[in-house]
Write a structure and sequence with these properties.
Number of strands: 6
Order of helices and strands: HHHHHEEEEHHEE
Radius of gyration: 17 Å
Structural class: alpha+beta
Oligomer: single chain
Largest sheet: 6 strands, antiparallel
Distance between the termini: 23 Å
Length: 186
């Protein structure tokens, strides 16, 4: 019993770190949106996921908004992801509803993967991927609340409809997805 509790605590702690790192990489109100804009957003979210899967962290860095890149060096970002890469494996992503309003978009996603160290476990992260358009390109701002808040402030209707939600984490146990709370969070 004591070993199981210790393993569970260790799993929560390490999974929490990986989840936070992934969510950093990886958080329309009444306005008509062209289907191509939604398709563009989907394409960027899928592309970033594939870059994470293939461990092409430099390309992931290039998809971050300029404000995020100005606060985090390329080497620091890449090294942080490299340190975590042996602890998890990304399997697939489901991209749900996409909403676009001007230069901000949100895509509902479910990321599926496996924790590989210190032991194996299946996991799922349900997260809204926020994107901002800069110089005509969609950039993934999930996890950069400062950048997201700036764009939401300029579009209050969108902000009311799609406020930032914290990622929800699940672990598969006995064939069921069980909510997983990070240490210190309730």
């Amino acid at each position: 019993m004591m070993i199981t509790q210790t393993r569970n605590k260790l799993l929560r702690l390490r999974t929490g770190r990986v989840v936070l790192l992934l969510t950093v990489v990886l958080f329309p109100a009444g306005m008509p949106v062209r289907a191509s804009e939604e398709g563009d957003v989907r394409g960027v979210v899928q592309q970033v996921f594939q870059q994470l899967q293939s461990r092409d962290y430099g390309s992931v860095y290039d998809t971050l908004p300029s404000a995020t890149r100005s606060r985090t060096s390329r080497n620091r970002f890449i090294n942080a992801l490299k340190r975590a890469q042996d602890r998890y494996a990304l399997d697939r992503i489901n991209i749900g509803a996409v909403r676009v309003s001007g230069n901000i978009a949100v895509a509902d996603t479910e990321l599926y993967g496996r924790l590989t160290q210190p032991f194996q476990a299946e996991g799922k992260i349900v997260v809204q991927q926020y994107l901002v358009r800069e110089e005509g390109k969609w950039r993934v701002a999930t996890g950069d609340n400062g950048t997201i808040q700036q764009f939401l402030k300029s579009n209050p209707t969108f902000a009311r409809k799609f406020p930032i939600r914290q990622p929800r984490i699940f672990v598969k146990q006995d064939g069921k997805w069980i909510p997983f709370n990070l240490p210190g969070k309730k």
